[in-house]
Amino acid sequence: MPNVLQLREAVCLLGRFPALAGLDLDLDAGGVTLLSGPNGAGKTTLLRLLAGLIPLHSGTGTVLGSDLNTDRVSHRRRLALVGHDTFCYDDLTVRENLVFSAKASGRKAAMGESAMERLGLSHVAGVLHSKLSAGQRRRLALAAAFGRDPELLLLDEPHAGLDSEGREILDEILRETNATGRTVIIASHELDRTRALADREFSIRGGRAYSVEQG
């Protein structure tokens, strides 16, 4: 099984605060990994580091073969991040956002259309992002991520803001994604729900990662 990421003594600073403080982590490709831990432990920082959005201040790291110390850009087309920001454009419609996102990752527009239908957004396909409700924006962000068909999917509290139907749809898609061999990393406080989806778990505490025994 190929290695999808490796971090050694990874340090990331937020101002002067070490959000990651010498974190070590290895993940083989495939499966759903849960990142648990308290607020401020470093979960969001870790996801943003893996996505190439913030730099390593010290230590080493590779993601999808890219060295995070020398190249934080080339692997971005091969992953998708859903975080607190939607990364969608207010002046584009739902369909336009999804088609743009899919094409930006080298995928066909049909991938975005399919994700739109799957997340239950077809009835607002022509609505601007700026006019969507908070729950619809969350669904759109998830649809944009799935429409990119990423090798690595990074999800930060993905169930937040979704209604019960949206949560069930997301869980079903995550199970299907897992079955395809894609790699999914979820940071969440909804442990009962996400543990039912996860193959492995790491507790992030004090900017470091600790393996949690499953079962």
UniProtKB/TrEMBL annotation:
Keyword ATP-binding (UniProt): yes
Keywords: ATP-binding, Cytochrome c-type biogenesis, Nucleotide-binding, Transport
Residues covered by the ABC transporter domain: 5-214
Pfam family, one: ABC_tran
Residue ranges crossing the lipid bilayer per the database entry: none
Protein name: Unannotated protein
GO MF annotation terms: ATP binding; ATP hydrolysis activity; transmembrane transporter activity
UniProt record, GO biological process: cytochrome complex assembly
Keyword Translocase found: no
